[in-house]
Amino acid sequence: MRPEELQESFAAALAARRLAGELSVPETVQMMLLQAAHQRVSDIHLTPEETILRMQWRIDGVLQTAAGFDREFGSRLVARLKVIAGLLTYRTDVPQEGRVAAEFSESEIRVSTFPTLYGEKAAVRLFGGNSERQMLEQLGLPAESERCLWQQLLATSGVLLITGPSSSGKTTTAYALIREILRQSAGARCVMTMEDPIESAIAGAAQSQVRPAAGFDLAAGLKSMMRQDPDVIMVGEIRDPATAEATFQAALTGHLVIATFHAGSAVEALTRLLEMGLEPYLVRSALNLVVSQRLLRRSCDCRHSREGISPARQVSPDKSLSTEGLSFGCNRCGGTGYLGRMALAECLDPRFPLVARSLLARSDSQALFAAAEQSGLVSLKELGERAIRTGETTREEFLRVFGGRLVLSDSRT
Prior knowledge:
- By secondary structure, the chain is of the alpha/beta class.
- Helix content is 35%, strand content 24%.
- The chain is built from 13 helices and 15 strands.
- It has helices at residues 3-19, 25-38, 71-84, 143-152, 170-185, 218-225, 241-252, 266-275, 280-286, 353-360, 365-374, 380-389, 395-402; strands at residues 41-48, 52-59, 62-70, 96-99, 109-116, 119-126, 158-163, 191-195, 206-209, 232-238, 256-261, 287-299, 309-310, 327-328, 338-348.
- It has a seven-stranded mixed sheet, sandwiched between helices. The chain has a six-stranded antiparallel sheet with strand order 3-2-1-6-5-4.
- Helix 2 (25-38) crosses helix 3 and helix 10 runs antiparallel to helix 11.
């Protein structure tokens, strides 16, 4: 949906509520959450500016302005979100995080606040859209990547590392793997998690959340968790050397550990682990697989149908059509030419001989990547070019997500 259509839609919903009486702050917040869920929004940003509070929605990874509120009314909206998320309303000078209580929403919603020049900024993450991607086969991963992950579910020890930038679907993939393990084992494997924060409740798993104020961080929690006799451990995110060390030691002592990690590619994940102080032999011995993934907007069917193209607009969003004066007018995608998202994921097994030798030699990223390619790595670039050729996405979308990191071939679809 175009930004102007989002604004019109939300304004119309507000007007309809006002007809029934005065629109209160709680009603506005409830409507905001309901409308966002209806529009497939993953994140709501409430940003205070000099005269207004701007509301933006992230749909399929792209931020769009949905509405603007009076500053005073906007601050009350943020205060209401803090109330239903169990945050301290009188503290506006420090960041806070919380989850919306079940009595206010059936779906999983997380709220975080942050002090800015003109007041508190609130970011709301909605997990309702992940309900269709609960299990591994529902993630829509490339066939070879999905096959690698299925094989890892049979492992009884080692680290399975899921990497990528923020909002690349790492936690969704980790949760799907945990659910698959629980389903396959029928409760015969003890599954525990250490997260910061817990993003979704998983039936059958013992989930824990860090409490820094009490000295209960990821590294400390992992060490204590070893005494709980777990078979499978999920680490919400490896952020520091202490957590990395505890994660790999847990894998060496006979546990399957699924962890997320910020890295631009599978090879970059290896070099980052070494930079964090892990010894190459430890990484080679304990690391089973590195998965690096991204989410790209999927091309709507109207891109492939002349009926979905209108000559009344300025320029086609997909310049690869080399046709000016076109717009995608499909009602489903709101004229954007994209509907939903697809996942790209590259998988690297660091135990391949060439990769292992490069790792033990502390080779640089270029040498590691060359060894990975010779070992059969299907890179994110290759997967992206394949998706562009088949029309699943576009060059413009690939460049939006990857920027200048990866250079595509000159061929266009």
